[in-house]
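Deliverable D5.2: sample structural annotation.
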Amino acid sequence: MTIAPTPTETAGTPTAPRVALVTGATGGIGRATALRLARDGMAVAVHYAGRRAAAEQLAEEITTAGGRALAVGGDIADEKAMHALFDEVEGVFGGIDVVVNTAGAMILAPVAELDLDALDRMHRTNIRGTFVVSQQAARRLRRGGALVNFSTTVTRTGFPAYGAYVASKAAVEALTPVLARELRGRDVTVNTVAPGPTATPLFLDGKDEEAIARLTAAAPLERLGRPEDIAETVAFLAGPARWVNGQTLFANGGLA
């Protein structure tokens, strides 16, 4: 656990930075998001499932740059673990204003060939995990808060072998407007980001050069997305985008 000193006072008034929890923060998009929100002045809880050292290193990077950060671990699909994790973040930082749920799993295979145990593992993370984190966020986010979950542009493009993954992410998209309406009167926004092909280890794993080249050329901007591109979208939804609510925002360079 790494925590920077309490922010200094400005003009006699203590600063009270907003607090963000980023799940899956050791992944490409999660890491970029944690760094981006820290640059916006937020205190950041850096979540990990198994890569504790990577999370602690990221928290240290944020604190070295003058921010505040905390490494926290747990299975996002385990409601008791997430309850304890939210308690820990609130205990250290005083509350939570932003929850960004980038944690996810992707297993690709044609529908006819996918192992059903793999289906269950993926859906446990992508559906149950998203639901558990969203449930805690719905109970705890302070006024002016934001929940940002993650889907994928493949819900539109329908690439072969993505059937089970897309099914899990379409569930996240369906949850988004429902939860936004359930939080009426709370001044809390609920949105989902659906990235296109983005150069992260999760995306690049198992793809040959031909497949990567094809996907690179698919978008009108003719490049893969960068984790920082997606982090900018999250920062928009977590900060100034108070009139965007209940939406799935496709960040894909114009792919679909």
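Annotation notes: The beta strands are 9-10, 13-14, 19-23, 43-48, 69-73, 98-101, 146-150, 189-195, 248-251. Residues 5-14 have pLDDT under 50 and may be disordered.
The annotation will be released with the project's public dataset once the embargo ends.
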